[in-house]
Amino acid sequence: MDFAKSDIQTMLLDSAERLLSDSSGVEYWREQHRSPLGFAEVRWAQFAELGWLALPVPEEAGGLSGTIEDVALLNIALGQALATEPYVSTVVLAGHILEQSAGEAGAMEALGSIAAGTLRIALAHQENGADPLSLDGVAMTARARGGGFVLDGGKIMALDAPSANQLIVSARIEGEEGIGLFLVPSGHDGVAVTAYPLLDSTRAADIAFNGVALPADALLVGGNHALAVLREAVDRASIAFMAQAVGAMEAAVKICGSYVQERKQFGVVIGSFQAIQHILADMFVAAHQARSMLYHALANADQPEARRAAALSAARIVIGDASQLVSRNGIQVHGGYGLTDEYAIGHYFRRLMCLEKHFGDLAAHLERFGGSVLA
Amino acid sequence: MELRLDPELESFRQEIRTFINDVLPPEIKERQRTKVLNNATVPDQNEWMRILYRHGRSVPHWPVEFGGCGWSPMQIFIFSEELYAADAPEFDWGGTHMLGPVLYTYGSDELQDRFLPMIREGATNWAQGFSEPGSGSDLASLRTSAELVGDKYIVNGQKIWTSGASHCDWGFFLVRTDKTVKPQLGISFLIVKMDSPGVTVRQIPQINGDTHLCEVFLDNVEVPAGQLIGEPGMGWTYAKFLLEHERTTSSFIYWSKRELDRAKEIARGESRGGRRVADDPAFRARFARAEADLLALEWSVLRVLAHEETDTPEAAAASVLKIRGSELQQEITMLQVDALGEKALRFYEASPVAPPPSEAWPDYVPGRTAVALIARAATIYGGTKQVQKNILAKLAFGL
Question: What range defines the domain where residue B21 resides?
Answer without folding.
Answer: 7-91
